Structure formats: C-alpha cells, structure tokens
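Students often ask why we bother predicting the structure of a whole assembly rather than each chain alone. The short answer is interfaces. A chain on its own may look different once its partners are present, and contacts between molecules only exist in the joint model. In this exercise we take two input lines together and write out one structure for the complete complex. Read the inputs first and try to guess which parts will touch.
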Amino acid sequence: MPRLFWIAIKTLAAVLPILTAWGALAYVKPAEGFLFPDGARIVLFHVPCAWIACLAYVVAAVYAITALRRMHSGAAEGWMHADRGCAAAMELGLLFSALTTVTGSIFSRLQWGAFWSWDPRQTSILVIMFLFAAYLVLRGAVADRQTKARLSSGYAILAVVPGLFLIWVLPRIVPTLHGGANQAVIGGGLDAQYRLVLYGFGLPGLVCVYVWLQHLRMRLMKLEDAYFL
Amino acid sequence: MAASPVRQALVVCRKDLLAEFRERTSINAVLLFAVTSVVVVGFGLTGLSLRADAAVPLLWIVLFFAAFSGLAHVFTEEEDAATSEALRMAASPEAVFWGKLLYNLGLLAVTAGIVVPLFLGAVDLSVPQPLRFAAVVGAGTAALASAATVVGAIVARARARGALFGALGFPVVLPLIMIAVVATRRAVGQDPTEWIWLRDVGGLIAYAAAMLAASVLVFPVIWESQ
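Now the answer. The structure tokens for the assembled complex follow.
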C-alpha cells in the first residue's frame, strides 16, 4: 500500500473519532421528545459501530471466497493472506458487534426503559455476534493450517445466509422499535446536526479505525503464521 | 465410476442406512435424547397449565437439541472409522452431500414423528388443525436437517465436536427457528380461515433452499482431503 494512503488513514483514524466525541458531547443539542434527551448522543457511537460490524461481515465473506479460490489455484502464500484477512475481519466484527450491543443496551434502557427487549434488531446483532464467535471457536478447534482455513472459510460463506436474513430481512417483516433504521437509509428521523456528526465524523472515522486495525491484525497474524509453521 | 449422481447419492444414503440397521447407534441415541428432553420439559411443567403460544417454543427447543445431538453422526462416523478416504474415492462430493442429507432428513423425520406427539401429550397442547400443524412442523424439521447437515460436515473434521456442533449450528439455524415458532403458533391457532401459515411454510422452505444452495457451493471444499 502506498505510504501516503496509510498516513491519511492513520491521521483520519486519530482525528475523526475526537471530532465525533466533541460533536456528540458538545455540538449536538439534546434530542427533543426523548424520554432522556441527552441519552440520544450515544446514537453517534452506536450506529457507526453497527455499520462497522456489518462491514466486517462483508469483508470476511469476500476474503473467505478469495481464500478458497486461491487454494484451488495452489498459491500457498495467496490463500494464507486471504484467510488471515477473513479471521481478522471476524475478530473485529466480534469487537464492534459487542460495542454495538453495549451502546445499544444503554440507549435502550434510557429510551425504552429496559436494557434488552428482544427487538428484532437487538436479536439480529446478538446472533451476528454469535456467528463471529462461532467462527473463531471453529478456528481454535482445528490444528492443521490448511484444514483450518478451508473449514473456517466454508463456515464464513455459510454464515452469509443467516447474516443476510438477520440484517436485511427479519427487521423488515417483524415490528421493531428501530423505526428509523428500517428505512433503506439510516437516520431518516435524525436532524441535520446529528446527520453531520454521524456521516461527517462518526462513520468515516470508524471506517478508518477499522481499516487500520484490520491491517495491523493481519500483519500480526502473518508473524504468528511464520513463527508456528 | 459411471453411475449417475442421483444414483450415487442414493447408494451413499443406502450405505448409511445399512450401517445404521446393523449398529443402530445414532437413531437410538437421538431418540432417547429427544424423549428425555420431552420428559424434562413435562416434568418441569408439572402442575402448570401452559398457554399454546408458550408451549410452541419449547417444542422447537426440543427439536433443535434432537437435531444437534445426532445429525453430525453421518460424518463423524466416517472420520472415526477411517472410511472417509474410501468414500471420497467412491463417490463425488455432491453425491456424498445429497446422500447424507437424505439420510439425515429421514432420521430427523422419524425422531419428529415420535417426539412431537409425545410432546403434545406431555404439555397437553391441543391441535385444532392437524394438517396445518403437520405441514409447518414438517417444513421446519426439513429445514433444520438441511442446515444441520453441512455444519455436521464441518464439525466432523474438527476437535471437541460435541460442543462445537451446537455452537456452530445455533446461529445458522436461529432464523429458521424464529420463523418456525411464529408459524407453529399460527398453526395451533383457532382461526381456520387464516391462510398466512402457508406463507410461513414458504418462508421455511425458502430458508432451507438458501442454506442448501450455500451448502452445495461449500461442501466440496469442506469434504476435500488434505
């Protein structure tokens, strides 16, 4: 990767989250009509985390397909690189889906009165978290490096079916508390200030953090592979 | 081998059935496990009268655990008996998958055929529309077997299989359990003119079809030897 690209990513990954924190805590006004108006600020952290979890999911599936294709063509380093990408994306997916669940529960307590209410979106993020975790458990249960890559990539591709269903189908067919989030574009109900912080700082900032972490994790895994093989 | 893929799949299924008739390991284990869980549910509910819509999720929990107690057996048995290499040489991966799936469908159908009536008796749940109920439970069971088969193939090649099977299977089948619970609730409802259950059965079949499509894509890779 060109050096300039990484300098830009790292700078944005440092600056944008600070701007998000400033925006969430000082810039946006408390949301009117909310049970606990100041609680709405957490949305600016919660929504980007949920998006990054979904992004990690897509990245993992693409890497899994790449790993299997390269394995067929026989290039050893090629499939290992893709397999590491898939594993790193799954780990980060687990992290961000856990953050989504925690921030979501806090918001849910403030707004709807209970930490957990088995809303379809809550159930979806929980099950997606289980999918990430199951993938990592499976990796731990296979010793041979290539079998590990093959089985876990297979599982990652299988997981696309429930994943698509939970993210895009279920919340649309079952009544949900996440009214606004069910429109194709999130934040139909958000006012301009929230949208600015969310799309201007929150989402791009966390995307940069994610890209950086993914890159670091893959480098670390490459060292692990080199050490253990 | 010149036999057609369909014939190969039937031969694989027949081989597993024969092995099962000789040793009767998986059907006995799955049935006893399922019956035990029905007894535990019934025992836990002694003295309580449960509303129909509260009993339905319990039925699917029992069926879920029945499926995930034994459906990996067709693959773990090949690994344990060291016969998987011979099977790889004798049949194409597709034939192996469809053969094993057919066997698992049969196994779970027999289990459900025995466990569901027992469960209805144990929790005293009346079914005003038996055909509708049977269609929903049948579609749900078939979908469960379809999703469990490919996960079983993955688990057979890993360590700590028993716990792993449930852990890997749960997130994959949860969406279909959710549809099945809602559909079964509607199917035990009183209103005979309500046709929405047909859409639910369609949803279950669609989910099973999507899982099968992904399984057929992925299975050759999982099944391949080193």
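Check your guess against this: Residues 76-112 of chain A form the longest helix (37 residues).
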